[in-house]
Write a structure and sequence with these properties.
By secondary structure, the chain is an all-alpha fold. Helix content is 49%, strand content 2%. It is globular, with a radius of gyration of 21 Å.
Length: 272
């Protein structure tokens, strides 16, 4: 029985531009923002928050601040359309305070927007450090690593924990008398915990594809845009005719498959 091909060409116009020089961050962002479900949500998200013209990435924080001030001044409120979230029953059961908040029609729109970005993290099983990148994707159509900080020393206000759904994270706290050896030892323990704790499945490692992830992604989107691997191969060979490039048709097929496997997985490579 022949499996019917699903046409995803309409997603190409929603593709998120990813701007970072670090391959590991590029991969982490790409395998989230290239997910069909997230891209399919984008038009409704932008409509819900009145996004008609995309922000410039360089002015994101300034423009977002101005945008949210306008919402407050106009006393705009909003309620989240929960029908697009498959895990909303889990949220209701595990985070009742958060659920009560997102089902209220009295929340100011900036609060609703922030809450929905948290909800998106929960839906796709992503840690909270994706929140600002999600806001960039919705408002800018592009993301960078200025606010995307998987590794960061920061103060945690534990009074906030529990009210908002978030994947577990391990924080290493230091004091004025901490040594580098102390931190190294605690980091080793943290990595072992990530391997065995079921609530930290996101952080478990899989095969490292980061050296090739940029071209894999280009081929993936090329196939969606052009409709076939043959056309992707033709365009690739044409673009690299003057280079010492040995890419074959089979390499492109394998690369696209590897990238599709990444998109199907919740587990980006972490160098443990």
């Amino acid at each position: 029985m022949k499996i019917k091909k699903i046409d995803k060409s309409y997603l190409h116009g929603l593709r998120i531009d990813i701007r970072t020089e670090k391959d590991i961050l590029y991969q982490d962002l790409a395998i989230f923002f290239d997910k069909d479900k997230f891209l399919q949500m984008l038009p409704n998200l932008r409509k819900a928050y009145g996004v008609t013209d995309l922000f410039t990435l360089g002015e994101f924080k300034k423009q977002l601040d101005s945008y949210e001030k306008g919402w407050f001044i106009e006393n705009k409120t909003g309620i989240i359309d929960l029908s697009k979230y498959s895990r909303i029953k889990e949220v209701k059961e595990n985070f009742p305070e958060f659920y009560d908040f997102i089902t209220s029609s009295q929340n100011a729109l900036p609060e609703t927007f922030d809450a929905e970005c948290n909800l998106i993290c929960y839906e796709f099983k992503r840690p909270p450090y994706f929140i600002d990148a999600i806001k960039q994707a919705i408002l800018c159509g592009a993301v960078d690593d200025t606010l995307f900080k998987p590794t960061e020393a920061k103060t945690v206000d534990f009074s906030l924990l529990g009210a908002w759904p978030a994947l577990n994270q391990i924080a290493i706290f230091v004091s004025p008398i901490s040594t580098y050896d102390d931190v190294d030892e605690e980091l080793r323990k943290a990595k072992e915990m990530m391997k065995t704790n079921e609530f930290m499945s996101y952080y478990k490692p899989h095969a490292d594809t980061t050296p090739n992830v940029r071209k894999y992604r280009e081929w993936y989107w090329g196939k969606i845009k052009l409709g076939s691997v043959k056309e992707v191969d033709k365009e690739w060979q044409k673009a690299h005719i003057n280079e010492n490039d040995t890419t074959t048709y089979l390499d492109i097929i394998k690369g696209i498959k590897a990238y599709e496997n990444l998109l199907a997985s919740y587990l980006p490579f972490i160098g443990l």
